[in-house]
Amino acid sequence: YIAADLYDHTGTHHPPELVRNKRVVAFCGIARSEQFFRNVSELGGEVESEKHFPDHHWYDEYDIDGIFEGEEETIAVTTPKDAVRIFEDEELLQLEDIGRIFALAERTVVDFGEEHIDKALKGISGRVYA
Question: How many of the other CB atoms lie within 10 Å of CB of 77?
């Protein structure tokens, strides 16, 4: 998985370069978070901390305060899964810090073995796929 873009609570998409040279807190509540944290660190920001929450965590105002820890110049990057839990919560959307939270959309890149994937997909679908 590699970084595709970032989006905010309004659904506005931003290039991954938005993070470059900024102070960043990466956070998520997913089971295997290593790749996510690696992708955030490769965006070119200064990752000050990585915050791990339990898988399927429902965020509240105290979590958001704890993510930023009073740092006003820091932005936060999370996963799309976690962003849904935050961006669709009416109470959290009222927080001043909501505009500093961005979800990192990732895309899959096949480094090798693409021909095997193509063959399997063609066998399943019986035709060329897009």
Answer: 29
| pLDDT mean for each 10 residues of the chain (130 residues) | 86 94 96 91 94 95 94 95 96 96 84 67 63
Residue 78 pairs in a beta bridge with 103
User: 4-15 in b/e burial notation, b at 16+ Cβ within 10 A?
Assistant: ebbbbbeeeeee
SS3 call for 63: helix
Give the pLDDT score at 70.
Answer: 86
According to DSSP, residue 30 is labeled -
Cβ contact 53:111 at 8 Å: no
pTM: 0.82
Which amino acid is located at 59 in the chain?
A: Y
Calculate the CA 112 to chain-centre distance: 25
Buried b (16+ CB within 10 A) or exposed e, 39-76: bbeebebebeebbebeeebebeeebbeebbeeeeebbb
